[in-house]
Fold this protein.
Amino acid sequence: MIPRGLEETVFETEFGPIPLWAPPGAFGRKRPLILCITGAWAEADDMTGLAAVLAPEWDVAVMRLPGNGTPRLSETSVVAWGVAVDQLIETAAPDRPVVVSGLSVGALVALATRSRRIRRIIALEPPLSMDRIWPMTEGLQVFLTERPEDRAFIETVFGVTDAGPSALRYHTLVEGARAPVEVMVGGAPLDPPRPIARYPSLVSEEDRAWLRGRRGVRLHVLPGAGHAIHIHAAPELIDLLKAALAAALAD
């Protein structure tokens, strides 16, 4: 399903095709482009509202994770998908400023990009330490049985197997980023494990402290928000996005 008011354009990469959803004419203009990568098992309309919010200064294109209602790519890994996005950018935006943003696993893919065309990376709730995301682990193990088509995705990207979570970490993605990084996390703390009505932030206090110590990285905490930061703190998030986009063009 293509969200109303958007068009689908398919771009080829060495790993296979990636469809992007954007307003009509978005790839024929020269104004700045923000590429938004949604999270695991996201709904078809997730993050598509940004097209209206950020217009007309920016064109917005939305990418769903490979296999999430879109074609699977030949390799399943965050790093491979980051390379594919770099290749996509060369075709979709060869001569315009680009900002890459992503939510959750989409944020990890954004952090894996290395294209020199990218002015900023905006990572919303990137789960850097997969052995710490206790709110998701049990559900992911259930999915291993209920969604056998997603087993490779769950095992490779989340590091969760039938035996439990592994110590899969994604900090090297942040360390290797070429563009300035803005990380936005929810204020609802991950720990301690407890009964929850909704996911808290999936970024631990240890990872937040690590991010604060990284050169070229700015950490923003949105009070009251959990992992679904774009739902729990939408107005505050929009303000931060607009400030980050303005800074990207001013650099």
In short: The two ends are 37 Å apart (CA to CA).
